[in-house]
Specification:
The complex is a heterotrimer of chains A (178), B (255) and C (359).
Chain A (H helix, E strand, L loop, with lengths): L1 E9 L4 H14 L3 E6 L9 E9 L11 E6 L2 H7 L3 E9 L14 E4 L2 H7 L6 H12 L5 H11 L8 H14 L2
Parallel strand pairs in A: 1-4, 4-5, 5-6
Antiparallel strand pairs in A: 1-3, 2-3
Chain B lengths: L2 H4 L26 H15 L5 E5 L14 E4 L5 H11 L4 E7 H7 L1 H9 L5 E6 L2 E2 L5 E2 L18 H4 L5 H6 L4 E8 L3 H19 L4 E7 L3 H4 L3 H15 L3 E5 L3
Parallel strand pairs in B: 1-2, 1-3, 3-4, 4-8, 7-8
Antiparallel strand pairs in B: 5-6, 7-9
Helix pairs in contact in B: 2-8, 3-5, 4-5
Chain C lengths: L4 E5 H11 L4 E4 L7 H9 L8 E4 L3 H13 L4 E5 L1 H16 L5 E6 L15 H5 L10 E3 L4 H18 L3 E6 H5 L1 E5 L9 H7 L15 E2 L6 H21 L3 E4 L6 E4 L2 H16 L4 E6 L1 E3 L3 H7 L5 E5 L6 H9 L4 E5 L9 H11 L2
Parallel strand pairs in C: 2-3, 2-4, 4-5, 5-7, 6-7, 11-12, 11-14, 14-15
Antiparallel strand pairs in C: 1-8, 6-13, 10-12
Helix pairs in contact in C: 1-2, 1-6, 3-4, 10-13, 11-12
The chains are: A alpha/beta (178), B alpha/beta (255), C alpha/beta (359).
Chain lengths: 178, 255, 359
Amino acid sequence: MTEEIIIAGFGGQGVLSMGKILAYSGLMQGKEVSWMPAYGPEQRGGTANVTVILSDERISSPILNSYDTAIILNQQSLDKFEKTVKPGGTLIYDPYGVTKEPTRKDIKIYKINAMDTSIEMNAPKSFNMIILGGLLKIRPIVDLENVILGLKKTLPERHHKLIPMNEAALKKGMEIIG
Amino acid sequence: MTIEDIIKPENLVYKKPDLMNDRPMHYCPGCSHGVVHKLIGEVLEEMDVVEDTIGITPVGCAVFAYNYLDIDWEEAAHGRAPAMAVAIKRLRPNKLVFTYQGDGDLAAIGTAETIHACNRRDSITIIFINNGIYGMTGGQMAPTTLEGMKTATCPYGRDVKVNGHPLKITNLLKELDGTCYVTRQSVQTAAAVRKTKKAIRKAFENNLNNRGVSVVEVVSTCNSGWKMSPSMANKWMEENMFPAYPLGDLKDTTI
Amino acid sequence: MSEEIKLMKGNEAIAHAAIRCGCDGYFGYPITPQSEVLETLTEVEPWKTTGMNVLQAESEVAAINMVYGGAGTGKKVMTSSSSPGVSLKQEGISYLAGAELPALIVNVMRGGPGLGTIQPSQADYFQTVKGGGHGDYKLIALAPASVQEMADFVGLGFDLAFKYRNPAIILADGVIGQMMEKVVLPPFKPRRTDEEIVKECPWAAVGKPKNRKCNIITSLELDPAVMEKKNLHLQEKYREIEANEVRYEEIQCKDAEYLLVAFGSSARICQKAVEMARAEGIKVGLLRPITLWPFPSKVLNQFANQVKSMLCVELNAGQMVEDVRLAVNGKVKVEHFGRLGGIVYTPDEIIEAMKAKIM
């Protein structure tokens, strides 16, 4: 099994860290992983995207032209990456940042109101975990317990108290994706 | 009386340090470098620290200092000696690490390295020969060339409107928190030589006692570059260089 | 799962590997996309554990000269930078080569020329293998294609540098520096004691004992006859390195009719292109030079007897392709495909280029 994922949105939305947690979860599950950011000075506000590959085999290219799954968090990213999803692949998007809905018919498209939900939950920082939860509901590529382990690996110890909140967000994301 | 009658220990009035070998020096007759080399050799011998000493030679006339003093040396790229000294001192904190640099090396191409080395407090020693001219390359203008002084690249005299002012870099270095001892000396008289030797000794002691950077500037002549006889050059230095670069301790936090 | 498997960026792997392989000192200056090397080192604070020194220098120029100073005393020292910074270091690198000092330099390449871009590039190939600085000299150049190799090549680079008293360089790029992958870090190796250094490096300037001659670290010699001898000695050493240290990887080459030649991140992308092309029934293989100097010329020349044509894929305007052509010496067609200025090709672009240029 190989899952090739692009996560794209604004810098500051937690795009890179979501990818990192996913990669760590893959590591915990004993998979080969690669995490390749489009790096740059855009720490906040600019566009950010990261390619995450989880595989049972050695990963060749960390840079891809098409993806099994695209997670899209703003309009610019939708414009850029909708066409790169492989036929039969998956596109997950948050309508909050998207003005023109995706149109492809040959891929599976899921909507997740993560931004609104994170505000309702009074936990805007867990936005990306809601998205990740939604992804795992649709594409159960890693087990939830390994995501929690991945979180522990990526979060500094002083932030480990935030793990229950993140777990709740993951589960919320699994509920609300549609 | 035969030669054997004369060469007796009790008749010995002067002896160069053993560290100084018998290779003929490439320096011009009248040059100050030889005297300063000798002083370094004497001080290292008297302190008995040769086994723990690493010297760094510059690019400039003193590039070949390693041919004359029998210690371990590294030959630097132009201006980079202080950066090397910092690294060596950090990697080998028990060694006596010193650089030997001219005015072009220290105060032009190597200004950044000089200032940053002096701003850290690694205990290195900088011996700085200031003769206001590039000797090795044939007498071009140095950052410390005096106003009106003629060189190959300011043949009508240094015009400060064109070339800026003579750089009193030692005055800058004394302001930096990493320096513990900054002094300006000369070697044109026996008394001056004795003072310079004391300064070098102090600088090397600071080096081993981890007190910070010591800078010993030696205001010197370059009689070839200045196109003067050695004695004329000494006189010219006293009359022109010393007012611009007055002798004495600029800073000593070790007292 | 073994605890030793970690997930980290290539730049972080360089830092951790340096600490573990007994490095004595790192001297560097921040520049994107390699700043994580210095950041990681200052976060881990190895001076508290292994005693390794870490210093942020005032410039890349100072950093390489700190390396020169430290290497002259026999210490295991390194620096890292990215393209514009490595240009600044070239004088020091030439001095290291001239004085025959072992040291490790890391270049995490970005696009140029000039200030260029911070995005990945492989346009410093010429600078790395054809000189870079002044004079006739060579660097042992290792091109990692994974985070694992970033870690492994630190130790290997130092080993080769000390074996031949010659600076070694790891030539990576923004992709390999910034991507995270699984890595098994090398086991901890203690730093050498001063006694061990004197034994291994009898040439080092460490302070002269009474019973030996002065050790003088220099590249200067004004007598042309002596300088020519010194150069001939260097050339002899380079021939020895060429004979012993060529490294490369063959991927699906056995039955290949076409050959891609690529190093570093490009080789990873080409590997995917090979998989995709083979799925289409095209018999293509990939030869990945691991040492860019010494270059795997012989094996390329042999493949020229087997394949119909070759495509050299590199993130530049055509640099390594010249060495591939020299190696092949006209036996088969060798073409180049590259992207410039920080654009990285995708696997399907490579297949397209292959079909257009060499099939």
